[in-house]
Structure formats: C-alpha cells, structure tokens
Amino acid sequence: MTKFDLSNLIKNLNFEKLIVDETILHSVDVRVKLFACVVLIFTISSMIHYEIPLLIFATFLIISYSIGIPFKITVQRLISPFFIVLMIFIVLIFTYGGEKTILNLYGLSIPIYSNGLHLGILIFARLIASILILNILIATTRIQDVLIAMRWFKVPKVFVDLMGMMIRYISLLSKEVVRMYNAQQSRLAYSKRLSYRIKIKNIGILAGSLLIRAFSRGEKVYLAMLSRGYGDDSRVVARAVRISFKEILFASSIIIICIGLIIVDRFVIQGGY
Questions:
Q1: For residues 263 and 151, what is the distance between their CA atoms, to the nearest angstrom?
Q2: Any alpha helices (H) in 141-195, and if so which ranges?
Q3: Phi, psi angles (nearest 5°) of residue 113
Q4: Which of 53, 55, 67, 231 gives 20 to 30 Å between its CA and that of 42?
C-alpha cells in the first residue's frame, strides 16, 4: 500500500479465519494457550518499566514470523488500535506531571515531563505486546474453541455469548464499513479539493450510519436467535479432553518465566518513576 486506504485495512479484520495451519501451537490444548495468554497479559500489565514489554513484543514478533503469520497481517492488526494508543500517549506526556521537565513545546508554557514520557512509552509497550500475543492466539486457534475453553474456566455465560457475537460480526460490520466508505469515495466525499473539516464531517456521517445499522442488525440477529430456541439455559455441549502432562509442564514454565520477568522488572532494572 503506497498510501493509507481504509478499505484495505478494514476488510482484512476477519478474526474467525485462521491465518496459519499446522504449526506446533495448533497441537497445544486451547485451554493451555488461553491460560498462557492471560498470564502473559497480566504480567505485561504489572510491569513498571517499558524494557520488558518491548522485549516480550520483539520475542513474539519473531515467533509470529517463524510460524508463518504474514507480516502484513500483523502490521494491520497493530495499526487498528494504534491511533487510540497514540492519543493516550499524547495525553500522558502533556498531563502526567513530575519534577523533571524535558522541554517546553515551542516556547509555550506546555511542559513535557520525563515521568509522563516514561508512562506513555510504558503503556504503548504494554498494549502492542498484549495485542501481538492475542494475534498469535487468534491466528492459531479457532474462536469457537476459545469460547468453549472460556466456559471450561467458568467464565460467565453472558460474557462468553457477547464475545462470540462481537467476534462473529466484526467481519460483517467491517465489510459494511468498506461498502459505505467506497460509496462515499465514489461521490468524492474525500476529494483533495475538500477541506479537512468537511472530510471529518463525512467520516462522522459514516460512523453514525454504521452505528444505526449495527443496532438494526443486532435486533434482527437477536430475534433470529430467539426463533431458534436461544435462552438463558442454552449451552455449548463439548467433551472436555484431558490435558496432557507436557501441556501442564508448558503452562508451569510460562508461570515461572512470568515470575522471573516480574522479578527482573522490579528488582534488577534500575530507574523507573
């Protein structure tokens, strides 16, 4: 892509489609993979220095490439939440105070503090590392298996059902966005001759129309589910397979590694806030 294209970015956000097949991660029990992901994300969230999350990100980026996940797909799934992360980063470096000031922006009284910059980088590193871990899980595990594993871990049924429907309809709403965006483009809604104010207004119209269609689609889906017998007592019937000793050993090693990373982060790495 030589330029930013919303349609090319959105239409590939299909989380139900496995990106790679027949890797060593496919043979691992989905409950073990889900447990490992949760432990790693909690470990990343507990870090107080950004070096360890960045190291985890680099490690899983290598793993992602080695198991065959296309680098383009990885970048696209990291770009999607990038603007939210960027806004958080900008807010933190200008609002999170401290004693040490790095610079005053353009001579104005808008200081950038070292503590705010450190916290912004830390949150950025936490988010991209967590997103990459989840991307590997989604690329090597069917969403239906993940939902069944969540039920095995006694996650509330309402939460599991909502997550399943959200994942299912992300791709459908993404295609809807692409159609609406292309329709706007065909009417020169994002022409170079238009001002940024008008372009932002057109994006707002797109977002509002998508919200209305999402509510309408959700109501139709719920009625369709009720007509097929959906209710509070509905459940997924699946036979639980016994977890092997190797997989228990793998989960235990993840816990030990995470504890080691926390010790390194808290007691070895110097500096911090």
A1: 32
A2: 143-152, 157-186
A3: -95, 150
A4: 67
Is 104 in a helix, a strand, or coil? strand
Residue with tokens 């290598």: 62
pLDDT digits (tens, 9 = 90+) for 80-108: 677 777 777 777 777 766 565 555 555 55
Supply the pTM of this predicted model. 0.74
- Distance in angstroms (rounded) separating the CA atoms of residues 93 and 149: 39
CA-based nearest residue to 124, from 87, 154, 150: 87
How far apart (Å, rounded) are the C-alpha atoms in residues 179 and 184?
9
Instruction: Return the structure tokens found at 40.
Output: 């790693």
| Domain residue extents for the chain | 17-141+243-273, 155-241
Map tokens 């999607």 to a residue: 80
